[in-house]
Each structure stands twice: as structure tokens, then as C-alpha cells.
Amino acid sequence: MFRGLQAMALKELRQLRRDRVTIAIAILIPVIQLIILGYAISTEVKNVTAVVVDLALNESSQELVLGLENSGVFILQGAKLSYDEAYQAIVDGDAKAAFLIPPGFAPDAGDEQSRTVQVLVDGSDSTTANYVMSTVSGVSQELSQRYITQAGIVGAPGASVQVRTRVLFNPQLRSTVFFVPAILVLILHMPLILLTALSVVRERVEGTLEQLIATPISRLGLMIGKLVPMFWLGVLEGAGVLLVMVYLFAVPLRGSLPLLVVLLLLWVAASLALGLFISTIARNQLQAVMMSILVIIPSILLSGFMFPRESMPAIIYPFTYLLPMTYALNIVRGLVIRGTGPLALMPEIVVLTVFAVGMVVLAAARFQKRLG
Amino acid sequence: MSAATTISINEVTKTFGPITALKDVTFDVAAGDIFGFLGPNGSGKSTLIRVLCGMLAPSSGSASVLGYDCARQPDQVKRHIGYMPQRFSLYPDLTVRENMQLYGSLYGVFGDELRGRIAKVMDRLSLTQFQRQLAGTLSGGWKQRLSLACAILHDPPVVFLDEPTSGIDPVSRAEMWEILLELAGEGKTLFITTHYMDEAERCNRLGYIYFAKVLALGTTEELVAMPVVTPEGTRWVEFLCPGAARQLHRILAQPGVLDGTVFGNNVHLQVKSALGDDELARSFSNLLGEDISVSPARPTLSDVFVALTEESKRDV
Questions:
Q1: Is the CB of B90 less than 8 angstroms away from the CB of A212?
Q2: Helix (H, G, I), strand (E, B) or coil at B42
Q3: Residue B14: is its pLDDT beyond 70?
């Protein structure tokens, strides 16, 4: 029943032993996964960038700001912003929350308005938003408590800090609003990298490249020619997910649709370019698959796809900038959820463009070497 | 380079790391030649073809095809040549016609002209009946034909064929050669590598490469007449003898017999020239108990290559 098993297993072992790259990556993948999952990722929320608009600039407002700072959740910035600037900072993705302290802020003020801190929260990520809201209410309660204790019972019995929260973009805090645009990004990344990497390696392994390079075809003609059908495949995929996102999951598109389409095409191009580059390093199909996984796993775990990048340890955080998906997520979530404008997305757009062009150039350079 | 020279190779050396694949290779191929390039596996045949096709730059030396430098003008070279690789390198998941369309377009043939060329080449190679079949489902001989079809679709004046008949049946092989001779008849220059001696004899010029070095160049007659094949004091003879293969070891043990082999019932021997035909006939008749008549013979190409290889081994 098991005749030949031993011989077959030995043959597989021998073949595997000759493919060192595959073994190395096969070992590397779980190690990287373990490090990321065990070390970099926690559901705890930290380092939430927030802006403070302090129109009071008095002792009470300073106490409140100090309280927020001491919570360890926020990185507070820009005390001299206007309300509109604070709002724009959230739209542009520069801040996830804004605290608006009214003029003459005091917990024991006679009018309700002077006792009330207004909080704007970016609702894109419901986890972060909930965490922000509970932290703020904790801080305000503590402040009220302290005030009452300080003033003694004789003080104003009604002394308290009121918090009025406005959740922007996703008032019901639905997690689909956060995840569906990210899935759009992932779906245009993972399969396209794999398909491209495999298709070029296949030409080499099956020997069809030999006949191709005997023709006057140019290197760029060959490579970009291979990418064109994949590009259209990506376009179809993207269109499908976009329709599902808007009509099935009811995630509204706040930004400009033409801009989103253009930037998704840029993302498709960047993914294809990365796949092409992998194909020039991999010697066989298995290596191409392993190398693609090596890129995709950190992309899912570290790009902010599932876990907020801000909360990751300082040693890991810089690595999140090495992943193209980090930029694509910023772009797509910004455009879809918050309606971010092209100007605010410019750094991400530039990085992705440079990445795509760079990968094609690198691939072309490496490809020439492989012929020799 | 004379006007009639199509391929010119000048001291080409190609190394891959520590391995020398070609060492100071120098020769020309004239326009209209069927040049047969022979040598054992791994001796550098395919490497030279890749250099000549502009796919591989030589480490030193230079080569040109139709006046275009293979290293500096590879695109010009590629445009004017056809290349049929040793291994089937077309797309198994495209049909015969689709493969031809691809290669026609890659060589810059489009539209009506492409349709016309495909029809002509398909007709010539009898591929029309298979045009809608996936290339991967063709048998070996037909795959080679398709491969040739793709290589000549753009009507190149020079065609490089790397073992075009390896692994196909004798009938397909013969048919392939009919087509090749026809192409040569149109004035195309063919550069062919092969392991078959009968194919080598069809070529009007031959080169023999052994361990990166070209050991001999010339027509079949010139090669056969090389002194190394028939050293002084030796000559070649042959005689008919039923069941020759069973007797060969006894024949080779006879005094004065230097080397020999068997073709069917024909014994082909290198002997000391001091021994005359009659003398040999007597001694073999005695040995084999049959009436043997010995006649002088011409060394075969195979003898030539064995002699060259032996000599080269002695030199090392």
C-alpha cells in the first residue's frame, strides 16, 4: 500500500535540500510572523495623535491638557490651531482626535458652555475611536472629582467637566467602514504580486524565455508587455471590490471617485512592479511564491491593515514605512472614509510612484544580468 | 571579411566563472552554406550559437553576422536571423497559429503580411491541419516543425538550428532535412548542430568542437583526408562478414589491426598499410572460416571525430 514511499520521500528531501532559498524563507516566514504577532502587535491603543485647540489658556485648561497627556494614550500637538484647522487635520489624517477647549473654560463655570470640552474623533477605526472616547471621559471625570475635592463640599456642587463628543465620518462606528477599503487595497496587492512573480519565473523555468530573447524584443517591451493583462485583471478586481464596498457594505465614498480610480491604478502598477522584481530574484515557482508571502505577511500585519501602526513599539514602527501597503492604506482610507484631498495625500502618492518606477528599473537591470 | 562571408567569428572566448565554454574560436561561414557544427554534449556548441544570435556577449573576441556585430548590435543581428533552440521553447498553451502570430509580430510582421507569411510557412511545413491545436499536444516531430516555422516566419537570410532533429523519428528527421535543404536552396545560410553523422554529411562545411576548442574545419572530404585520421603507415579497409559484431573482438585482436567498428555486416577497419588487401583477406578468411574479400575504404566522419578527440586528449 505504501510501496515507494521511502524512495519518494528521500527524493523530495534531496530536491528540497538543493533549494536553499526556499528552505530559508520557509523558516523565516514563521519567525517573522511570531516576532510581529508577539512583539509588535497589541490591541492596546497608544500614541494617538491629537490636536488641542485651547481657547481658554487658563489653569483649568492646562490641567485638562496635562490629564490627557498623562493618560499615555495621546501625542498632543498644535495648541494654537483654529477649529477649522483642527477639523482639517483629522480629514487629512494628521490627527485622530481634536480637543476644543472653550474660552474661559472652568469646571465650575456658571454656564454649561464654559464647562464643556468638545471632542472630535476620527471614526474610521472604531477600536481607536472607542478607546479615545473612554480615555477622554475618564480624564474628565477625574478632573471633576479633583475639583470637587479641592473646592470642598462648599464649592459649587454642580462643578463638573462636560465632554461633548462628535464622531466624524463613521458615527455608528461600524468596523466595515474601516476594513472594507483596506481589503480593496489588499486584494489589489496580494494576487497581483503572486501572478506577476510566477508568470515571469515560469517563462524562465519552462525555457520559453530562450526563444523570446532570440527575437528583437526589448527588455521593457517584454516586461511591460507581460504586465498589461495583469494590469487589466487588477482593474477588474478593483472595480468589483469597489462596487461591493459601496453597494453591499454601504461604505460611502467621501473623496473624489476619479482620484480614487487613478490612485488605485497607481497601486495596481506598484504591486505589479513588486511582483516583477520578485520574479527576477526567484529561480523557480516555489521561490517566487515564498518570496511573495514574505512580503505579504508583514504587509497585512504591520501596514495598519488590522492594527494601528501608532501603537506599535518604537523599534518596529520605522519598518511600517518600508511597506508599500502602508501608503496605499493611508491613501484609500483617507479618500474613502474621510474625503481627504489630493494635496494631503501627496507624500503617499510620491512614495508609491517612486516605488513603482524604482521596482521596474531594478527588475529591468536584474533581468539583463540573468540573460548572461 | 569577404563579400560572401555571412558569419565571421574572430577569436571568441566565453567563460562562465571558472568554466571556459569557448576558447579562441575563429572561423567564417560563407553565404548559402549549410554549416554543420559538431561536437560532444557540453563542448560549447549551444554557447557559440547564443553568442552568434546576440543573446550572450563573448568574454573576448568578436563575432558578426551579416556584418552586424553580435555583441554591439544584438538587435540588428536578431532581426536578421532565425533561431531554433535545442529545447522546444514555444508556448504549449497557445495554438500552432497563435505561436506563429506571436513570433511574427515580435519580428515586426503584422496584419495581412503576417497572415500571408503564416499561410505560406504552414503550407510549406504541412502545419495547416494543426493550426488550431495547442502546441503542447503536438508530437515531437511536429513540435520541431512548429519551432522551425516560428524561426523562419520573418524570412531571415540566416537560420541557426540547435539540434533540430534530436529526439524525433527517422521519417520526421528525413522530412525535416528536406525542408532544410529547400531553405538552403533559396540561398539561406544554415548553421546547424547535430550528433548524427549522416546529417553531418549533408552539410557542405563542417566544424568540430571539443572542450571549447574548434579542432577541425572543412568539407567532409577535407576532414576525411586529414592526416590525423590516417596516420602514416596506416590505411582503412572494409569487408563483408555475416554476424560481424560477434566476431569484432577477434578481428581487432589480429596482428596489424589498429582500430575498427561494425556497420551491420560490414566491418570497417584501420590497419597497418604494410598489410595488403589479399594478405588481410587470407588472414580473416582463416580466422572466421569464411571466404572474405577485403577492399580499401574511406574513413568515415565518425573516424575523423574519434581521431581528433583522441589526439586532443593526448595533447592535454
A1: no
A2: coil
A3: yes
Neighboring chain A residues of B85 at a CB cutoff of 8 Å:
207, 210-211, 214
Question: Residue B255: inside a domain, yes or no?
Answer: yes
Q: What chain A residue is nearest to B84 in terms of C-alpha separation?
A: A211
Cell of A32: 517573522
> Which domain range does residue B153 map to?
5-224
Q: Report how many Cβ contacts below 8 Å link chain A to chain B.
A: 44
Q: Does A4 touch chain B (CB under 8 A)?
A: no
Task: Say what the pLDDT of residue B72 is.
Answer: 94
Q: What is the pLDDT of residue B67?
A: 95
**Which residue of chain A comes nearest to B150, CA vs CA?**
A211
Q: Residue A372's pLDDT is what?
A: 44
Of B55, B78, B91, the CB nearest to A208: B91
Instruction: Provide the domain count of chain B.
Output: 2
Q: Where are the domains of chain A?
A: 48-168, 175-371
As a whole number, mean pLDDT of residues B82-110 equals 95
Q: What is the CATH number of domain A48-168?
A: 3.40.1710.10
| pTM to 2 decimal places | 0.82
Q: CATH no. for residue B243? A: 3.30.70.100
Q: What is the pLDDT of residue B1?
A: 45
* B240 & B219 share domain: no
Return the higher-pLDDT residue of A149 and A354.
A354
- Confidence class for position A111, pLDDT limits 50, 70, 90: confident
CB A313 within 8 A of CB A320: no
Q: Are residues B243 and B123 in the same domain?
A: no
- Please list the alpha-helical segments (H only) found in B161-300: 170-185, 197-202, 220-224, 244-252, 277-288
First to last CA, chain A: 48
Compare all CA atoms of chain A with the CA of B74 and give the residue at the minimum distance. Answer: A216
Q: Say if residue B139 is in the same domain as residue B286.
A: no
